[in-house]
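Example 591.
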Amino acid sequence: MSTHQTLDRWVSEMAALCSPADIVWVDGSTEQKRALEEEAAGKGELIRLNQSRWPGCFYHHTAANDVARTEHLTYICCRSREDAGPTNNWMAPDEGYRKAGEYFRGSMRGRTMYVIPFSMGLLGSPFSKIGVELTDSIYVVLNMLIMTRAGSSVLRELGGNGAFTKGLHSKAGLDENKRLILHFPEDNTIWSVGSGYGGNVLLGKKCLSLRIASHLGRREGWMAEHMLIMGLEAPDGKISYLAAAFPSACGKTNLAMLVPPEPFRRRGYKVWTVGDDIAWIRIGPDGRLWAVNPETGFFGVAPGTNSRSNPNALETIRRNTIFTNVLRTEDGDVWWEGGEEPFPTAGINWAGLRWRAGMKDESGKPVPAAHPNSRYTAPLSQCPIASPEWNNPNGVPLSAIIFGGRRSGLVPLVYESFNWQHGVYVGATMSSEITAAQYGKQGQVRRDPMAMMPFCGYNMADYFSHWLEIGRRLEHPPKIFHVNWFRKDENGSFIWPGFGENLRVLDWIIRRTNGSTGAVETPLGLVPAAGDLDLSELPLSGRAMENLFAVNPEEWTDELAERRHFLEQFGDKLPSGIMAEHQALRKRLGR
Ligand code: GTP
Ligand code: SPV
Ligand code: MN
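Predicted structure in complex with guanosine-5'-triphosphate:
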C-alpha cells in the first residue's frame, strides 16, 4: 500500500485481473533483495554462480523462443492509426486491452505480484519520470533494481498524486502465440505479457524510456533517444560530451567504455562513461543541448566482451551482475563466444544443453555456448570509468551527436553533416544490417532512423519534425556526424580495426566542434583532410584508408532509391526539409 490513491486502486484492479497469490511492494532495501535472490535461487529461476569468482552474481536463462525483442508483437495503441505512423504496429486501445487482458486474466495464479516503483533519472531532477511496474518475475525485479532507481524513496517522491507510467508485466505461460508488448501513450500505460526477455519486460528501458518517453518528449519539448553518452577528456583536461545513436548490437556499449589507443593514452586522453543505451535530452538555458542517462545500469551484449575488446565492461561485470543466456560451467563459472581465456571445454549452454567445445549439430554447424544476444545486467557505478556527471541532475552539455550503422559497403568511416537539417536527414536515412538483438533475417539491410525504428512511440514523420523543431530552438546546436565502423574489404574483413581505435575518429569529431581542424567536402558531407585523422602507430595501408572513405556515386543509385521509397511512405506528413535534403544529395552525387 502507498499513500497514492490512484496507484493503490490501479494495483488492486490489476491484481483482480491477474489473480496473484500475494502482492509484495519492492522497497529497494538490501535485505529484501537478498531474500528475493534466495527465493529465486531456491526455485531455480536464478542460479547462484561461484561466489568466490563471481561475488553477488547470478545466472538466468530464458525460454528458447524468448531471447530477443519481438518487434512483430510490439504495438503502439493510440486512438488514431496515423498517430502510430507507417513504421509501427498499431492496435486500437480497446482492442489492445481486451486482447492482452485475456492473456493476463489469472496469469499470476499461485505466483506473487511484485510492485516496483522506479524512477528513470535522478529523483528530483527536471529530466526524470516515475514508473511503477507490476510483475510476476523475480528476475525482472532484480534486473530493475540494477537498471533503475527503485524502491520506497520513489513512492515518497510520488506523494499523494504524482504522475507515473503504469507498467503491467506477466510471464503468463511464456507462449509466443500469447505474447504482446503494448504501449498506450495516451494513457501513459504499458502492458507486456508472455515474455521474460529483457527488452520486452524491463519496462523502464525501451518501453518507458523510449516509446512512452518519445511521446512525452514531443508533447513537452524534449527528446528521448537510443543513444550512448560519453565524455572525452583531452590532454588539456577539457571534457567534451558526445551522444551517439547506433542500432541494437552496433557498438554503443563498446564506444561508451572505450579505452584510448596507446599513443592517445600517453598524451592524456581519457573516456568517461555516462550511459550506453538511452539519452534524455533537453534544451538548456544556455541554448545548448543537455543530456542525461535515465538508467543506472548496463544491459549489455555478452559475446565478444573480453579484457582486450572491452576491459572496462569486464571489470564492471565481475560482481553483482546477472548473466542471461550465456554458457555456465558445472563449477559456477560463465562464458560466451569471444569471452576470456581459458575457454571452457564443457558446460550447460544457453539453451540448457550439455555442451562440449567443438560440438556440432546434425547439420554439422557448431553448437553455440552462449546465445548471440546473451546479456549481462550490471550496475553503472561499478564501471571503472563511470563519469561523476552521470549523477548530475542537469546532465551534460553535448558538443556532437553521432549517428551510425553497420554497413559493409557504401558508407564512409566518418562524415560531418553540413548543418542541423542535413544532420536530421542523415539520421532519418540511417540503415544497418540486422543483428541478433532483434528477430529477423540476420545481415539484411534495414532502415533504422536515428536507431529509433523499433522505439519511436509515435508517427516517425512527426518525430523528424520534432528533431527539426528542436534545431530551430537551439542557439548552439551540436554538430551532427555519421560513422560506420563496419565497412568490409573484398575478402569480407572489417577494414577499420574499431573498438579503442574509434577514439581517433572521436578526436577528429571533437576537433571539428571546437574549430581546430579542417575538413574536405564530399557529396555526403565533410570528411577529414589527408593527415587530419590522427593515425599515429596504426598500421593501416593507404589503400585501406581510401576504401574507408570511398564514395562511389554508382553504388549510391540503389541506396538513393531505397531512401526515397522509405521516405515516401510518410506521405504529406514528411517534413519538406527532409525531402529537400534528399534531392540536394541526389544532385551532389550527380544521380
Ligand atoms: P544494444 O545493447 O543492443 O543496444 O547494443 P550496443 O549498440 O550497445 O552494441 P555493443 O557495444 O554491445 O556491440 C555489439 C557487437 O558489436 C559486439 O559483438 C561488439 O563486439 C561489436 N562491436 C562493437 N564495436 C565494434 C567496432 O568498433 N568494430 C567492430 N568490428 N565490432 C564492434
Ligand atoms: C537493444 O536491443 O537495443 C538493447 C537490448 O539495448 S533490449 O533492452 O533488449 O532492448
Ligand atoms: Mn539498445
